[in-house]
Amino acid sequence: MISAEDTIAGLHDALSLRRRVRSLVQLCGAAAVIGLVVVLWLTEDGLPARTQAGFAAVVLVGLAVMTRAVYVLRQRGHLFANDKVIASWIASGFAVLLATGLALAGHGRLGAPFVLAAVAYLLFTHRAKRRLERR
After folding, report:
1. 98 and 124 Cβ atoms separated by less than 8 Å
2. Residue 80 to residue 83: CA distance in whole angstroms
3. String of DSSP letters for 23-73
4. What is the number of other CB atoms lying within 10 angstroms of the CB of residue 72?
5. Residues 6+ apart with CB under 8 A from 81
6. Closest CA to 66 of 16, 28, 17, 21
7. Is the dihedral of CA 30, 91, 52, 63 positive or negative?
8. 16 CB contacts (<8 Å, ≥6 apart)?
9. Contact indicator for 67, 31 with CB cutoff of 8 Å
10. Which of 39, 62, 99, 105 makes an SS bond possible with 34, Cβ 3.0 to 4.6 Å?
11. Residue-level pLDDT at 12
């Protein structure tokens, strides 16, 4: 049996070195990708609207990754189950966004399988969530 003191001490555990390094690499990697895409976006003239929308989507995903990495580094503690669930739904949403973007960029021919896979994944996770809630 775990005492209340042990539980509270476990909640305030510092982030492990491995986890901090991983979050720092995510932060720096996302910043590098955002910087590269923004510089490319600003220096190229006459980009089509689809390309500009793609660049905007990449920047938004990078900002979300950076926000999560900063949040983890500032918390300096373990993420709780609720935080992990929210992060998984954000990842699922970005996967559907990416699949839809691929479908639009390929005029539906190349991206249609990605959209179908993304929708199937969302349905699967939604059903799994409902089954867990019924327990």
Report:
1. no
2. 5
3. HHHHHHHHHHHHHHHHHHHHH-SS--HHHHHHHHHHHHHHHHHHHHHHHHH
4. 22
5. none
6. 28
7. negative
8. none
9. no
10. 62
11. 53
- Number of helices (H) and strands (E) in the chain: give both, helices first: 5, 0
Measured CA distances, 113 to 54, 103, 124, 126, 132 (Å): 19, 8, 16, 20, 29
Tokens of 49: 């609207």
Q: How far apart are CA 111 and CA 102, in angstroms?
A: 5
Per-residue model confidence (pLDDT) at position 33: 87
Angle between the 81-105 and 112-134 helix axes, to the nearest 10 degrees? 160
The residue whose two tokens read 């209340």 is 4
pTM: 0.55
State how far Cα 130 lies from the chain centre.
Answer: 22
Round the CA-based radius of gyration of the chain to a whole number and report it: 19
